[in-house]
Amino acid sequence: MRGKNVTENRRDLPQLLNDARRWFEEGLLAALAADGVPPVTPTQVQLFAALDEDGTTVSELARRMGVTRQTAHQAVRALVDAGLLEQAPAPTSGRQRPIRRTPQGKSAHERARHALDHLETTLTDRIGSAPMAALRSALEAPWGEPPTGPAGRG
Length: 154
Description:
The chain is mainly α. The protein is 58% helix and 4% strand. Strands 1-2 form a two-stranded antiparallel sheet.
């Protein structure tokens, strides 16, 4: 009789990482709503975080977020309509229209930064300083490119 494979009883790492991302996302969205920031979606939050201070093109935002230009453009449009972003011609190129935070968007970004700091402190209190430091270290370490080709089989 063979023993049960240990991996059968545990969740995949991508599932765990997704749950962790969702925990932060839900906490951030709740904090922003409580702080009076116009409602935003998780995609809009991701876009907002991917912006450079001096502005970023829709194409570059799409690349950073790993989404289509259309998805990035829709998120930008909604954030422009909410008054959090603006799009203006670049001083060096009339064709490029970088996306920038408005004063209201800068304020929302600062509030989001404080909310994320609070969430990280809360998580540290819950799981401990050493596990939090190890988690951060593992996530910040260079992982290199993912392997290509068929997965190894035992």
